[in-house]
Design a protein that fits this description.
The protein is an alpha+beta fold and about 150 residues long. About 35% of the residues are buried.
Length: about 150
């Protein structure tokens, strides 16, 4: 069994929405062979809680306006560290970068086929690592300045 055309359409729209809001490391998996409850997972992350919320809001708005769907469940909203949008056919996980590293959902689903995503979404791969390196360099420079 593979993800349905409708699931793929939802995943691609959600991935583009996440990319438009500068999400990091967007990836999607076809989980239809291993889960009976959904066809596909979309994973995305952001370096801060406010951006996580912005990405989630954009995905929800676009899927509602363009494809006429609303999530049946939205969890994790208050803390905005890991927000889950359940559309039945697909499940979207938007995580704070720290949660993404800690929970490493990719390891769980790495044996599932990846779903091709729009170029903007694919271009986000590696952004979290870049961002972390940049922050570490800035913090080191700040510390160095304080020590002088």
């Amino acid at each position: 069994m593979t993800a349905t055309d409708r699931s793929i359409e939802l995943i691609k729209a959600a991935a583009q929405s996440a990319a438009d809001k500068l999400a990091h490391d967007i990836i999607a998996y076809d989980v239809s062979d291993v889960l009976s409850i959904t066809d596909a997972f979309l994973l995305a992350s952001a370096p801060n809680d406010r951006q996580v919320k912005s990405i989630v809001d954009e995905i929800e708005e676009r899927l509602s306006k363009e494809l006429g769907v609303k999530p049946v469940r939205r969890e994790g909203d208050r803390e905005a560290r890991w927000v889950l949008l359940d559309y039945v056919d697909i499940v979207v996980h938007v995580q704070h970068s720290e949660e993404r590293v800690f929970y490493a959902l990719e390891r769980l689903w790495k044996d599932c086929p990846e779903i091709d995503l729009p170029a903007d979404a694919v271009a986000t791969r590696g952004k979290a690592a870049e961002h972390a390196e940049q922050r570490a360099a800035e913090e080191a420079a700040d510390l160095d300045g304080e020590l002088r």
